[in-house]
Each structure stands twice: as C-alpha cells, then as structure tokens.
Design a protein that fits this description.
The complex is a heterodimer of chains A (364) and B (202). Chain A has 364 residues and is of the alpha/beta class. Helix content of chain A is 36%, strand content 21%. The chains are: A alpha/beta (364), B alpha/beta (202). Chain A: It holds the Pfam family Peripla_BP_5.
Chain lengths: 364, 202
C-alpha cells in the first residue's frame, strides 16, 4: 500500500518568464509520474497546483493555500528570486519547504529552501573566468530591475575590479520593458569586451535582437569579439529568442546536447533537469520512512538518506556539473567543462576565477 | 557617504555566541554555519580565546558588563546584541556594551548575514573615527609645543609670519606634521646634545 503524500506546485504559467516556469514544471511532472509508477517505492505524490500568473503579490497567499488547504509540506516552484523571497516567510510560519529549481544570485541559505540549480560559484565565477582569459576584462552589465540583476551585477563588478578590469556601464530595465535603445547606445559608445546579460523575459529577447542588429552595423559587436554572457538562458527560451542568440555564451549545470551523466537529450534544459532531480531527491528522503512527510526539512536532511541526495545539510545547495556553452544553430555546444562543483552560496571558499596564468613579458 | 559593503571575507571567520543554550542559539548557529563561520557557544563566561574572535553575539537580556574582559563599550571586535525584551534599560545597556548591530529574538531563518555586515561596517567606521579623534587630540595637545617653537624661531630674529613659514618648510622637508616639526625644534633647543635633524619619519 503506497502512502499518498501531498506536494505543491507554484509556477506562473503566464507572464514574462512562463517559458522557464513551464520547463521546471515539466521536469517536476515527469519525475512525479515516474515516482508514482515506481512499484519499489512506498509512496505516491499528489499534486496541488496554484498559478500566480506572474503576479508577484499572489505567490505568498497561494503558497499559504497549498500548505494549509492542500495539506502539503513541500512546494516546487518560483522562478524569480523576488517570488522566492516572498514565499520564505510563509514557509517559515508553516514549517514548509520550497524546492527552488532556478539559477539564482546566492547569498541565501534558508532553512526552508532546497536550492537545486546553480549559484554564482557554479555559474558567474567560472563564466567570467573563462571570458576574462579569452575576450578581456572590460564589461558592460545589464539586468532586469530586481534582485537577480542587482546582485549578479554587484558581484560581477567586484570580480571585474579584483581582476584589474573595468565596468564600463551598468543599466537596468523594469521587468517586461523593451526599451533597450539606451543600453545599446552605451554599449556602442563604450565598446566593451563582453556584456553580462541579466535581463529576463521580453526585455532579454528585445535586447538580444537589438544587439544582433548592432553587430551587423559594427563588426566589434560580434560573438567572437564581444559576446553576450548569460547565467540563466537555456534551451527552454532559445527558440523564443531565435537566431539572434547565436554565439551567446551561457553557464549552467546541464545542456541538452552535451554528453554527460544525464544523457544527451534526456531533458529539454537545465531548468527541467533541476525540477526533475528535486522531485527524486524528495522521494528518496521520504521513501521507506512512514511519517517523514510531516517532518521538517532540517530533520529530513539529518537522516542517512540525505547523504545520497547530495544536498549539503548546512547550505541546502547541491553539487552540480559546471559547463560553459555557446549557442550554435539553435542549441548549446559545450566549450568548457569545469567539472563538478559544490554550491557555495556565500562564497566562503573564496572567489578565485581560475584565470589563465598571466603572460610574462620581458621589460627592456 | 556612500558605503560599499563587500560580502567577502566572512568564510572562516570565528563567532562566539554568548548566550545560554536555547533554540535561538541553534537557529543562529545554523545560519552562521551556512554563511561559513566557525561558531562557539558559551555562557556565562567568555573563554580567553574570545579576544581573538571576529564577531561576538551576546545576550542583551541577561548580559552584564563583567562578562566582557575589556573596557566597557570598547570591544576589540564587532558585537551583535541578541535582544529579546525591548526594554529601554536593556537596549541602553547593549548599546553601552558596544553593540554594532542587533538581532531580535527569537532568531528564525534569517537576519544573521545582515547583522554581520552591519556590525562589521559600523565597527570599522567606529575604529576609523577613534583613530582620527586620537590623531586630532594629539595635535591639540601639541599646540603649546607649536607656540614654543615659533617663539624660539622668533627669538632668532624672525617675525611671527616668517617663523611659521620656516616651521612649515621644515615639516615639508622632513615630511612630518607641522606639530612634529615643532617638537623637533623644541627638543633640539632643550637638549644640549640633540640637534635639529631631518630625513627620518617619526
């Protein structure tokens, strides 16, 4: 007899970032179907779903509904860091857990969240290290006007300064805004070595289009001289962006067409892979332990089953492959495999970028 | 003043929690461990090693001055008050003990990181101010020396303005402060064997 365990789903199926939400949701649903069909497991997951529709103010109340009315303790959801920060107080009050399956900006280790996707030491640091050695250290920073862009760019600014580089500009757009002309004008004027793109949704799509147009006018702004970098663009948005994404360099734990432990083409994107992995981790924490579904996360992570899930009991982050890949003909081609790296949200283990050794010159 | 608070350098830092065993201590230990700090809990006495800690969190509800082995209000590291009862007397005591930041009890899922950064920034600002005040105070104390040095140089037949100008020129040549130059002039005059000599920083 299988235990029926309620879990929640809190993804926005419409709005600016719905493509990412759909990808995560797909991964979660695939894994739930597998878990429910697995006769070796003594549990099935029953879903309660709420759709905030991209409205930030609905995340808190809807998370509360899932936890109280749905009787769930574990919620899979949230795309933006803003929405994650909205639901954490609700989780804390109710003793719930959010399984967050997005790359994010780090500097968080809530007792009520498991972070299944990459944080800066797994995306931004390796990506900038690779870029500095290949293109230079003069960057232009963009972002959507909320915490992901602000914090990513703050860290990038520090890393650029530490490496002796220069931040030539930093500009933000409200979520959903497509007024990218000023950014493009500033980029044209400052001629950076790379552009760090932390825009999301429609702003990002418009920006990539405008930058491709700039590249047609001036050869400096081509991917082989001044690439656009991203820590959250994956295959799930690539088709929406179209051919203008060509040459964009992204960091992530999984790319669809890269060989790896997950297998080529197993998931559509790293978002999907992270959602899938999160559900299986929860299943392993609960399987064979009746009553565990009512235990708080801290108790689950203190169990022996926790070690196999790869969740660090201190930070609730995971060990992930770190890959750097370049968009090419509608998919990503891996250009560097940095191996597996444990999430280090507060950069406690340092912030070295693994730069290539400096070239020494004989000074006459 | 615009402050740039850098988030680095917390990894490996040592924090002492001066608080009796309590769920608040557990919650705080969890947060600090996640941020990367080594944590030691103690109550009611601070161990001798506390002097080398990077941060001290202390109980503002039951704490008292004799717990701290340094001059009251002048701890050698940033301190963070753990405040349960917001009674004015207790807040006043916590401030006088040298709290650079605070965290309200019960401590839950957050607050430690901002308290650490706030406390460190406030502590550093306080240290910088104290150093500046000490330097200014020293210059004030040297006013009499300056007057003496000017009087001596005037005794050699200079006007007051010329004496000042000469003293300033000496300070520049020796690359020391105006007050430092005055001190050398006075010292050279006093001791029969000493001479006004330049070229070395004090």
């Amino acid at each position: 007899m299988k235990r029926r365990i309620n879990i929640g789903l809190l993804y926005s199926r419409s709005g600016s970032y719905s493509l990412i939400a759909d990808a995560c949701r797909m991964g979660v649903l695939t894994a739930v179907a597998e878990v429910n069909g697995d006769q070796a497991l003594d549990l099935t997951f029953v879903l309660t779903e709420r759709d905030p529709g991209g409205n930030i103010d609905l995340y808190g109340p809807m998370c509360e509904e899932i936890l109280h009315d749905g009787g769930a303790r574990h919620v899979f959801g949230c795309v933006t860091s803003w929405s994650r920060k909205e639901v954490i107080p609700v989780l804390e009050r109710a003793g719930g857990t959010l399984w967050y399956n997005q790359p994010y900006e780090g500097f968080e280790a809530s007792d009520h969240v498991v972070y299944s996707h990459a944080c800066p030491n797994q995306h931004l640091l390796p990506l900038l290290g690779w870029t500095f050695g290949r293109f230079g250290r003069r960057g232009y920073l963009t972002g959507s006007n909320y915490i992901w862009g602000w914090e990513m760019n703050r860290l990038a600014r520090e890393l650029i300064a530490d490496a002796g580089g220069e931040t030539l500009g930093e500009r933000y757009l409200p979520i959903g805004s497509t007024e990218v002309d000023r950014m493009i004008d500033e980029i044209r004027a400052t001629r950076p070595d790379f552009i760090l793109n932390n825009l999301i949704g429609a702003s990002q799509y418009r920006f990539l289009n405008a930058y491709a147009e700039l590249g047609r006018q001036d050869k400096h702004f081509s991917p082989d001289r001044c690439p656009i970098l991203s820590c959250n663009l994956t295959e799930c948005e690539l088709h929406a962006v179209g051919p203008v994404a060509e040459g964009l360099v992204a960091a992530g734990p999984y790319f669809r067409d890269a060989p790896g432990p997950a297998g080529v083409g197993r998931f559509g994107s790293s978002h999907e892979a992270a959602g899938y992995a999160a559900v299986w981790r929860l299943a392993r924490l609960l399987a064979g332990r009746p009553g565990a579904e009512n235990a708080p996360l801290s108790e689950l992570l203190a169990s022996t089953a926790a070690a196999e899930t790869g969740i660090d009991p201190k930070t609730h982050h995971t060990v992930l492959p770190v890959l750097i890949a370049q968009a090419e003909g509608g998919s990503f081609r891996v250009v560097k495999d940095c191996g597996s790296v444990a999430g280090d949200p507060y950069l406690t283990r340092g912030r070295e970028l693994a730069l290539p050794a400096p070239r020494l010159r004989v000074v006459p | 003043m615009k402050r740039r608070v850098r988030s680095q350098n917390l990894g490996g830092a040592r924090a002492i929690l001066l608080h009796r065993p309590h769920p608040t201590v557990q919650a705080l230990e969890r947060q600090l461990a996640a941020i990367g700090l080594a944590v030691e809990q103690c109550w009611p006495d601070l161990p001798a090693s506390a002097i080398a800690a990077d941060f001290i969190f202390f109980d503002a509800d039951h704490g008292h001055d004799s717990q701290f082995p340094w001059e009251p209000g002048n701890p050698p590291m940033p301190m963070i008050a753990l405040i349960g009862s917001e009674a004015p007397g207790r807040i006043e005591w916590a401030l006088n003990a040298g709290a650079d930041a605070q965290l309200l009890k019960p401590v839950g899922d957050g607050g430690a990181f901002s308290a650490l950064l706030t406390a460190r920034a406030a502590f550093e600002a306080r240290q910088a101010l104290a150093a500046e005040v000490a330097a200014l105070r020293q210059r004030l104390d040297q006013r009499q020396t300056v007057v003496r040095a000017v009087a001596m140089l005037m005794g050699l037949g200079k006007t007051e303005d010329e004496a000042y100008a000469q003293l300033r020129a000496m300070a520049m040549a020796w690359r020391i402060s105006f007050e430092g130059a005055a001190e050398r002039v006075v010292a050279a005059q006093r001791g029969p064997d000493t001479q006004v000599r330049g070229g070395r920083d004090d």
